[in-house]
Amino acid sequence: MLDIKYIRENADKVQQNAKDKGYDIDISKLLKLDSDRRKLLSQSDELRTKRNDNVAKTKGTKPTPELIAEGKKIKEQLVELESRTKVINDEYSQILNSIPNVTLDGVPKGGEKDSVEVKKFGEQPTGATDHLDFAVARDWVDFERGAKVAGAKFYFLKGDLALLENAIYQFALDFMVKKGFTFMTVPHMVSSRVMTGAGFAPRTSDQSDEYAIEGEDLSLIATAEIPLTGYHADEIIDEEKLPICYVGYSPCYRKEAGTYGKFTRGLFRVHQFNKLEMYAYTLPEKSVEMHEAILKNEEDIWQAIGVPYHVVNIAAGDLGAPAAKKYDLEYWSPVDNMYRELTSCSNCTDYQTRSLNIRVRRKNGEVEVLHSLNGTVVSLARSLVAVLENFQDKDGTFIVPQVLQPYLNGRKKL
Fold this sequence. Notes:
The chain has helices spanning 4-9, 11-20, 27-57, 65-98, 131-137, 143-150, 159-178, 192-197, 225-230, 287-305, 351-355, 380-390; strands at residues 116-121, 141-142, 156-157, 182-185, 189-190, 212-213, 218-220, 236-238, 244-253, 272-282, 309-313, 325-333, 338-347, 359-361, 367-369, 371-379. The protein is α+β, with helices and mostly antiparallel strands.
């Protein structure tokens, strides 16, 4: 969430930023609730002081009828004020938690089409077979039985394709561990506090992407970013321990709400997939630098595999609530002759950490909110799409990228 003090001092900026991101937020209403809330809290504090004074007058003596009557009146007034405060607090918190993070300098204005290409790698080949047709012909994937077991957009990976997924994962994990990231496996479910604190609030109710567990305060995770955000909730981390860098592995569960009209064929957009995710906690003044480092890790992995891509600076209207700036790495599809999203990385500044009370203790003893960042190492279903499209041989076989061959017992073709 944003700091309410920052919102008070930058109301117009926060209002415009929410609009730029596509959120329907009334900042003036929030500030009115904030003012009313503070007045009620002040009145409650005054009444508690009067109540304490009243109690002090009765020490060592029998209270007079006047003191008893005054005490009763104060109690009734406090009950009424606390009731009014709760109603206002609930509405205040709801609006505050729905305000998106403020974008950093250099983020393009506009929607998805206004995002800006910042770099490019590799050629742009054409004429490949669609990944789904290629995989189905080899009996490597089964969506029909996936649907029979769990519903549409669930699937089984079989044989060499399942082994290829594991090879990509093992290569990427080895790469990140060598970079100094601590490997983590994570809970697949989180509480509503962690979900909200990580910023996974939809723009509208029909865009909710998470699967909730009925009767429990739990939701299935859409990415390891969510539990990794909650890992240090309510903690103060000493400055000398930063940055802290994790790489988390998990299945990801997504309804894919609000994706009508987007590319959904085969493995590109599914309800469950495996993913390896980078996560970093940094000092505020180091988060921009860390963002670039996370992006470089993503680029180095896909350059090593040999998949052509470009990097896009995402426009404000296509950013999620937590992100102050985001890069997408999009692979070149020789099937569709266009770039499609493969990985992303976001600087969330102090948006997630403020909500979950994650702070840093400076060397001088001062305590402040630190910054958090995240980035996809490999989203494995989508990674399979990218390599299947880009490594087809003329004889109809799949050429194993050189860096993946050690993870497939040296095999060069599948």
